[in-house]
Amino acid sequence: MLYENSKRFLQLLGLLALQVLLMNHIHFLGYGSPLVYVALLLYFPLGSNKIITLVWAFAMGLMVDMFSNTPGLSSASLTFTAMCQPIWLKTLTPKDALEDMTPNYRTMGKWNHLRYLTLLLALHHVAYFLLESFSFYNISDLSASIFSSYVLSWLVIVVLETLRGRE
């Protein structure tokens, strides 16, 4: 348990540093910035305590909010995504998986893991940008922001997952 929490804390710090120091300074065509801190939710095992998952997600979102000057956006959207994470994980996990299985390409299969990543990212990005704009007034800008950030985030996280899988 202590090993898992210390490992998760190091993942949190690494993703936080990557997000704040590098990804927040990337703006694709003035719309999209990769939001890679969502990858923290990808690492929670199948049988994780939901309360603990929510606390970790809120803490990560709160830290990103503090360093990115986005009051409440990251914490609200990541906590919402963490509420939905166990449902998607159970749906896409093979039936014969162990209860403490950690999601990755080997345990879930390549396509199920990519679907899991795709669904979590889509859910997070829609929640994040809807909270940021808080209206549908300029739906084209909202759609461009969601789509460009989503594509950039997806690509960066797939590269990170590929590098992580080589360990």
Mean pLDDT: 85
Helix content: 55-70%
Major beta sheet, specifics? none
Distance between the termini: 21 Å
User: What does the overall shape look like?
Assistant: globular
Strand content: under 5%
What is the N-to-C order of secondary-structure elements (H for helix, E for strand)? HHHHHH
Rg calc = 15 Å
Number of strands: 0
- What structural class results from the helix and strand content? mainly alpha
Summary keywords:
single chain; 167 residues; mainly alpha; 68% helix
Architecture overview:
With 167 residues, this protein is mainly α. The chain is built from six helices and no strands. It has helices spanning 2-21, 50-68, 73-92, 105-108, 110-133, 139-165. The model has no long low-confidence stretch (mean pLDDT 85).
The gist of it:
With 167 residues, the chain is mainly alpha-helical. It has helices at 2-21, 50-68, 73-92, 105-108, 110-133, 139-165.
How does the SSE layout of this entry go?
Layout: H1 2-21, H2 50-68, H3 73-92, H4 105-108, H5 110-133, H6 139-165
Helix pairs in contact: 1-2, 2-3, 3-5, 5-6
